[in-house]
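User: Can you predict the 3D structure for this chain?
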Amino acid sequence: MSTATVTQPTGKPPQSYKSKFKPTWCPGCGDYSVLAALDKALEAFARPEHEIAIISGIGCSSRFPYFMNTYGIHAAH
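Assistant: Here is the predicted structure, written as structure tokens:
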């Protein structure tokens, strides 16, 4: 059983939107770069984490909601 963490909205954007969970993709997978780019883009967007939702489908890349400290849904397509 996985444990979700809930953070209270702070009203200001965080320095990083990445969660405390480390990605479990294969070494060299391009998903690491996409995750880093998404984090950087969200930092530039500068919205509080409670105003952002990551929606994903199936496959390795769909684990994004677990690795971001935002709202998220991981569901079948």
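The two ends are 23 Å apart (CA to CA). Helices lie at 31-45, 64-67.
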